[in-house]
Amino acid sequence: MTPFHVTATGHSLNYLTEYIATRHGFFKEQELEVTVSVPRPWDLVLDQLADGTANAALGGIWVPSMYRNTVKEYTAFAQVANRSPLALVKRGHTEDFQLSDVPGKTVLIKSGNGASVGLFFKMLLKENDIDPKSATYIQDLDGVMLGKLFQGGMGDYFLTDNVTARAMVEKNSNLSIAIEMAKDGGDIPWSVYYCATAAITPDVLDAHKRFCIALGKGIEWVLQHDAETFKDELAELFPAVPTNVLVDLTNSYRQNGMWSSPSVSRHGYKRWQHGIAYGGLIKEPFPYEVIVNNGPALAAASVHAEI
Asked: Considering only CA atoms, which of 298, 269, 95, 78 is closest in space to residue 178?
């Protein structure tokens, strides 16, 4: 067995296919002993890559992009989430919400795991010909704090993770979900696995390939099974979340393209690079091959096709 430690920026439902690959022995089939840690603060994932504690970091591709040509080179080799797991919560229950309603309003934006939440929402507005500067944002604060403030009356909208959003509106009859990004936010490589470029060797590439084979099996398994049939596993993985919320949201993710392939989407990558550049984290978008080595995922797909 080859030890393979993943240092992750969170424990999230959109990482479900990795958890399934672990629980169902798909990594062990590839002779990988996969372990996971979630350090706090989240940016300690970079320290764990640097000191060799971790073989890969799991998080936003905006980090390898931002660090390229400034601090250190990282290479993404696999994708776990193909959609943004965010939702916009609003007051009331009208069904006619449009993004054009946002200008002039105040949006509370959950922070804590980096810059991606605000970057994505502002990119989405811009893509819909809405000036992101036309709204007021309250961010850089803890998500729990902002959630309480929003329910107490602060702001017009609350942008948070989809699990929190669904649990919140289930408990508070005065709130509803305006938009779920997994359904209406488009393809984007939201969560990827990356490592230090300098650490890549033939043996590392082989481990990446085996990792992608197992991750692909995890994706396939989840897509083939209604969440109701494995709700006990979901409850074990996320004990603090109501099981019905987990089942409904998992099925929504299954149906709306959250999980597609270990290959980093070229279309989604190009789109996200423009969003990252618009947010000022990079001067201009990087070509796909500068940040992504899709070789292991393509090799894994070939093995899977032969099987």
From this structure: 95
Rounded to an integer, the average pLDDT of 230-244 is: 96
Burial profile 164-196: b = 16 or more Cβ within 10 angstroms, e = fewer: bbbbbbeeeeebbbbbbbbbebbbbbbbbbbbb
Q: List the domain range (segments joined by +) for residue 138.
A: 86-185
Q: Is the pLDDT at 112 greater than 70, yes or no?
A: no
Name residue 45's amino acid.
V
Confidence of residue 114 (pLDDT cuts 50, 70, 90): confident
Torsion of CA 185, 295, 14, 89, to 10 degrees: -20
Token output for 16 = 């479900």
Element (H, E) at 23: helix 16-23
How many whole angstroms separate alpha carbon 141 and alpha carbon 146? 7
Give the number of residues written for the chain.
307
**185, 206, 232: which is the final residue of a domain?**
185
Calpha distance 32→3 (Å, rounded) = 6
| pTM listed for this prediction | 0.95
Q: Which of 26, 12, 6 is nearest to 303 (CA)?
A: 26
Helix axes 202-224, 16-23, angle to 10 degrees: 100
Co-location of 198 and 297 in the same domain:
yes
